[in-house]
Specification:
The protein has 451 residues and is of the alpha/beta class. The protein is 41% helix and 16% strand. It has 19 helices and 15 strands. The strands form 4 sheets. It has a 7-stranded mixed beta sheet, with helices on both faces. It has a 4-stranded parallel beta sheet with strand order 8-7-6-9, sandwiched between helices. A two-stranded antiparallel ribbon has the order 2-3. Strand 6, helix 6 and strand 7 form a beta-alpha-beta unit.
Length: 451
């Protein structure tokens, strides 16, 4: 019998997170204060983040110890399984070996819980009563809502309006865990009201929702802000994925030629790839591919510039690939990938040639998702399906070239709360959104000028 699953024991959960800042050939440029354009210091961030996370954000220590309280919660779903996709390989007729790390086994259904749990823990330690945050498709909102329950913290979520309407069951899951959820842009904040004054029918964006959450946190002393992607400490927490994966490949007696993940802000890509990029930086031959939607092609068609992480310009300026902080992408179903920029870490590594970037249209992504569902049985999240499409393409290329390759992708979440998207695709209602070159060009013209 062929081995399908490689499952670790609970004592195999990593005891430390891996910090790629210790090994990067080029470190990202420092965040800049949104008003002064001077490097941001810890005091500038202390109004919305606990000091423990600020320290992780700037640390260059290779290993950061995972608190026992966080490990105790991780055991609910970690270690996550590694699957060999035998049935997908057969369907493709490829000589490539395809593996996927399945993060949909977490209680919230995605990888986001790997960082929501430590973020809630550190905020509780700091005496914070409430967390304000944003969410795109709802995976992050669900994850931080669950973490809030576990650590006794209230959670307020600003959910991108188009996803609020498309994905009601994600909203219901957040509310089931006790969170307050508001469609963004909302009338609850100055930044939300400003957007609605200009466009009462705005579909919203992650940049807008971030502005609302940051404003909420900054104007309430008992409230901190939490982010589900982009920031260094978020990607740090996600490295439990790649660290487990390396152990699983040792058991399999294999090692990947290609590591693939979808990329919106960078958390899932960083989590699965950074431990392998350590090997690449130190001489190992492998490829890391970040996959994004053609309708929001940050890495493939954005500019490597300083920009705000939010629409209103409340956040520090980060050096990253960006489409412009007020760019609003089309309302595709992969809402978690509708972000105008990418992590500074992912952006720098891409700029240095250590990560490749690729973009796909949503109809070809859903076609790949259906093939995966029919062969492997799991209905994947629309975001994760971008990685599936890339893995299929690489496996077919191996078939064309007659070469064996080992391919692994991160199946970052399941799609069982995204069935409306599948219904729309099956009914022929999903169309490809053309690259909005004029809107991106216009947004890039409004990037801040740094002297």
């Amino acid at each position: 019998m062929k081995r399908t699953k490689i499952i670790l024991e609970e004592n195999d959960i990593p005891r430390q997170w891996y910090n790629i800042m210790a090994d990067m050939p080029t470190l990202p440029k420092p965040p800049l204060h949104p008003a002064t354009h001077k490097p941001v210091g810890p005091d500038d961030l202390a109004a919305i983040f606990p000091m423990a996370l600020i320290e992780q954000e700037v640390s260059q220590e290779r290993w950061i110890t995972i608190p026992k309280e966080v490990l105790d919660v991780y055991t609910l779903w970690r270690p996550s399984p590694l699957y060999r996709a035998h049935r997908l390989e057969k369907a493709l007729g490829t000589p490539a070996k395809i593996y996927y790390k399945y993060e949909g086994v977490s209680p919230s259904g995605s990888h986001k819980t790997n960082t929501s749990i430590p973020q809630a823990f550190y905020n509780k330690q700091a005496g914070i009563r409430r967390i304000a945050t944003e969410t795109g498709a709802g995976q992050w909102g669900a994850a931080i809502s669950l973490a809030g329950v576990f650590f006794g913290i209230e959670v307020t979520v600003y959910m991108v309006r188009v996803s609020y309407n498309q994905k009601p069951y994600r909203r219901i899951s957040m509310e089931t865990w006790g969170a307050s959820v508001h469609p963004s842009p909302s009338n609850l904040t100055n930044s939300g009201r400003a957007i609605l004054d200009k466009d009462p029918d705005s579909p919203g964006s992650l940049g807008i929702a971030i502005s609302e959450a940051v404003e909420d946190a900054a104007t309430h002393k008992d409230t901190n802000y939490a982010l589900g992607s982009v920031l260094n400490h978020v990607l740090l927490h996600q490295t439990v994925i790649g660290l487990e994966l390396k152990k699983q490949f040792e058991i399999a007696g294999d090692y990947p030629d290609i590591v693939i993940a979808c990329c919106g802000g960078g958390s899932n890509l960083g989590g699965v790839s950074f431990p392998f990029l350590y090997d690449k930086i130190h001489g190992k031959q492998l490829r890391v591919i970040a996959v994004e939607p053609e309708s929001c092609p940050t890495l493939t068609k954005g500019e490597f510039r300083y920009d705000f992480g939010d629409t209103a310009g409340l956040t520090p300026l980060l050096m990253m690939y960006t489409l412009g902080h007020d760019f609003v992408p089309p309302g595709i179903h992969a809402g978690g990938l509708r972000y105008h920029a990418d992590s500074s870490l992912v952006s720098q590594l891409t700029h240095d040639g250590l990560i490749e970037a690729r973009a796909y249209h949503q109809t070809e992504v859903f076609t790949a998702a259906l093939l995966f569902a029919k062969s492997e049985g799991i209905i994947p999240a629309p975001e994760s399906s971008h990685a599936i499409k890339c893995a299929i393409d690489e496996a077919l290329l191996a078939k064309e070239e007659g070469k064996e390759r080992t391919i692994v992708f991160n199946l970052s979440g399941h799609g069982y709360l995204d069935l409306t998207a599948y219904s729309d695709f099956i009914d022929g209602k999903i169309i490809d959104c053309a690259y909005p070159a004029d809107k991106i060009k216009d947004a890039l013209l409004r990037l801040p000028t740094i002297g």
